[in-house]
Model the fold of this input.
Amino acid sequence: MKKIKISPSILSADFSQLGKEIKRLEEAGADMIHVDVMDGHFVPNLTIGPPVIKSLRKYTSLIFDVHLMISPVHKYIKDFADAGANLITIHPEATENLKESLDLIKSLNKKVGVSLNPDSKIELIEENLKDIDLVLVMSVHPGFGGQKFIPEVVGKIKKLREIKDKENLKFDIEVDGGINFENSKTVIDAGANILVSGTTIFKSNNGDIKKNIDTLKSS
Done:
């Protein structure tokens, strides 16, 4: 049985208590901390930048799984690496040269991720799959938390898993967007091994985050 990792999205956390929230997530069994960075340009929302990530770094040794929804992304990669990101995920549409941006992340000794929006085709990143650590499949349109899961992306997860198995590649398949107790098994069965969840982890079962993380892990 494959090990499922949970990367809670702090987009749903109490922003006035982020350091404490991250500690709570670590104590509750989170495997990573998912940090959504939005610029109000590539996606219609604004969140946090490198100084906030740097200030949060001291609260945990867990992997900071940083999803950059910013464009142009290339010139900001080093800032996020320096701030304490361990895994940096970018969108192919947000850079003029995807390979150059991925190589930059790698040169900074960070794990490399590429994200696909619900409408983005696998072909956009297929030639890069052998060089990356993670594919993040968006199961909502990025920009806001609390959206409803788009079931059509399950086929994309299955296809990525087929490519991974056929070519004996090592990348993780992460899914983010509307993940809950009802659909988590579906995406895991399709091939995902990392689940990002915000609302479900922080709000379900009266905010019992340990119970919610354990329930997602055992989907």
Observations:
- The chain has one domain: 5-217.
- The two ends are 11 Å apart (CA to CA).
- The chain has a mean pLDDT of 96.
- The helical segments are 18-27, 50-56, 77-83, 98-107, 154-166, 184-190, 199-203, 209-217.
